Amino acid sequence: MSLDDPLTFAHGPAWRDRLALAPLTNLQSGPDGVLSDDEYAWLVRRGEGGFGLVMTCAAYVRDDGHTFPGQLGAAGPQHLAGLTRLADGIRATGAVSSIQLQHGGRRADGALGPVVAPWDDPAKGATALTTGGVEQVVADFAAAAALAERAGFDGAEIHGAHGYLLAQFLDARNNQRTDRYGGSAENRRRVILEVIDAVRGATGPDFQLGLRLSPERYGIPLGDAVALARDVLGAARIDYLDLSLWDAFKAPAEPEYARTTLLSHFTRLPRGDVRLGAAGKILSAADAAAITARGADFALIGTAAIIHHDFAARALADPGFVSDPQPVSAQRLCDESVGPAFLEYLSTGWDDFVA
Q1: How far apart are CA 304 and CA 68, in angstroms?
Q2: What is the pLDDT of residues 66-117, one digit of tens each?
Q3: What residues pair up with 242 in beta bridges, in sequence order?
Q4: 100 — phi, psi (to 5°)?
Q5: Low-confidence ranges of the chain (pLDDT < 50)
Q6: pTM
Q7: Can you give 257-313 as a three-state secondary structure string?
Q8: What's the CA gap between 230 and 243, in Å, rounded?
Q9: Dist CA 100 CA 61 (whole Å)
């Protein structure tokens, strides 16, 4: 398998190569979630840089899921024109487009609206969703996917990672709901499976569907994450599983699983035609090739894609290509189509990114 081999799926178009732009928070959209010129330029430039898949940042599916200022929205008709422009722009580069759909849950910004979660959390100002409220969240994810399809996106990724709402339901420490969405591992993962099924029902047969999981942290036992992955892979519920591993080469944190890499617990699962990708400290062509050599189908590039809009093209042309080290200058990032809001986020949110 080579990184420049096309990657086919049960639904939707093939990717021209096995390098995907990871979904990256960039704070560049308007306060109302409408696409900005800066976010458009940032994403389309990565399509021009050779990535097989260009994925947006997390886009909120309804107003109470709005998590941070400058977040892209997919919550209603007010977002359609911007999303259409973005889908058209990515398509023109030859890349496949995906919108990542998200609800912040207890991590939503209370200054932007009411905060809801699987359980009451006074410290976060969050109120527990009723059973009917959870069912509405499922419907809202489906509606956002239908909106994205109408805008022309090739597919969507459901954000079940990083401690946002869907991942909160997976939290074995705190999700003690007594309805069908809490308590047992089976109940805690039910909402994700219902969202997948609802999105499939709301979109056409050529709409490509992914799921992002972070199989450690956020109260998610590795065994539970593997069981969920086994379900969605084995039942072909999705087209690809995106594993956000922080470090794609690390061992699991739980000692009983640490004899092999974290990634290996997922690559060994039967997956048929469902594809598997991983993200985390993939900073060179060799890193990306190592991920696929270890059983993944594709690599998701984050940091290196910020520094090099054309990381994909460079990595495909040169197996020895390595991303420039951090920190990098502000001017260099501006030259890579990082807008002012994104640059400020990188400068203040990370202590080693901007020189």
Answers
A1: 23
A2: 999 999 999 999 999 999 999 999 999 999 999 999 999 999 998 887 899 9
A3: 212, 277
A4: -90, 125
A5: none
A6: 0.97
A7: HCCCCCCHHHHCCCCCCCEEEEECCCCEHHHHHHHHHCCCCEEEECHHHHHCCCHHH
A8: 13
A9: 10
